[in-house]
Write a structure and sequence with these properties.
There is one protein chain. By secondary structure, the protein is of the alpha/beta class. It folds into 2 domains: 81 residues, 2-Layer Sandwich (Alpha-Beta Plaits); 157 residues, 3-Layer(aba) Sandwich (Rossmann fold). 28% of the residues lie in helices and 20% in strands. The protein is built from 8 helices and 12 strands. Strands 5-4-3-2-1-10-11-12 form an 8-stranded mixed β-sheet, with helices on both faces. Strand 10, helix 7 and strand 11 form a beta-alpha-beta unit. Helix 1 crosses helix 5 and helix 2 packs across helix 8. The longest helix has 14 residues. The protein is globular and about 55 Å long.
Length: 271
């Protein structure tokens, strides 16, 4: 088990095999009328370009205006679906506020007038967080992010530490076999959170509420954690698009976040 998580992270981040079904560039004609659509968007690596640290991401000129106009055109049925906390999302897009599924489904905001409508996860055990936080001392460049209900170890500045991080997490999990936690490998991040909620559980809940209920969802994401949402889109007659890689089971792909931003802006073109 010691190297099991390290191997899992490595496997998850590889490009899909050559025999994976091809995903084609996203045609505008594939998208239904905006008054029938719910637009669901991951943030890092999808809307925003990845940066060396999570705090360095920035919102390119015009993106917030595009998102606000799409919110109006969909009668409010646009939501950000992210591993980031609601507070973090609001800091990034300030002063604008958007509906969101945050913290991999741990938090949800259905109204831009609320801080949060639902919180589905209790805080991680303090002793567990202390042990996990100590992993950051393995190497300079490992950044610790405490979200309360989860803890993330970012190693974009220390990619050589990936294996050591996952092995250390594996040792802790072996000591606590009954702890209700799971490990989420991502792009240069290892996140440990309570089990029982994912981006997919958050999206399923979101789609039960107005103004999303009854609409056809379109979800765009880039990372391993977005695959749970890709998987449920057929259940909702929805469409899924990946960014930067041709993920399994999607309807199309974008090469980069800049292509996603351009696509969203084109949705507002009446032609």
């Amino acid at each position: 088990m010691k190297s099991e998580l390290a191997e899992m992270a490595s496997n998850e981040m590889r490009t899909r095999p050559d025999d994976a079904p091809d995903a084609v560039p996203v045609p505008h004609a594939l998208v239904p009328h905006l008054n029938e659509t719910a637009i669901l968007l991951d943030i890092d690596g999808t809307l925003l370009d990845l940066m060396p640290t999570p705090r360095e991401v920035w919102v390119p000129p015009g993106l917030s205006e595009t998102l606000k106009h799409l919110t109006e055109r969909t009668s409010g049925a646009l939501a950000l679906v992210s591993g980031r906390s609601l507070n973090d999302i609001d800091l990034i897009f300030a002063p604008d506020v958007f509906r969101a599924v945050a913290g991999h489904g741990a938090e949800m905001r259905l109204s831009v007038d609320n801080e949060a409508d639902a919180v589905h996860a209790p805080p991680l055990d303090k002793e567990l967080k202390r042990r996990l936080a100590a992993i950051a001392k393995l190497s300079p460049g490992i950044l610790l992010e405490d979200k309360g209900y989860s803890l993330a170890l970012h190693y974009r500045l220390a990619p050589h530490a990936e294996k050591a991080i996952y092995e250390a997490v594996s040792v802790i999990r072996a000591d606590l076999p009954n702890a209700p936690i799971e490990v989420l490998p991502g792009k240069f991040v290892c996140e440990i959170k309570h089990s029982g909620f994912t981006k997919a559980t958050g999206v399923r809940e979101l789609m039960k509420h107005e103004p999303f209920r009854g609409r056809r969802p379109i979800f765009i994401g880039d990372d391993v954690t977005d695959e749970t949402v890709f998987a449920i889109m057929p259940d909702m007659n929805g469409l899924a698009f990946s960014v930067g890689r041709r993920a399994m089971g999607v309807n199309g792909h974008f090469d980069a976040p800049s292509d996603v931003r351009a696509f969203l802006a084109r949705l507002l073109d009446p032609r």
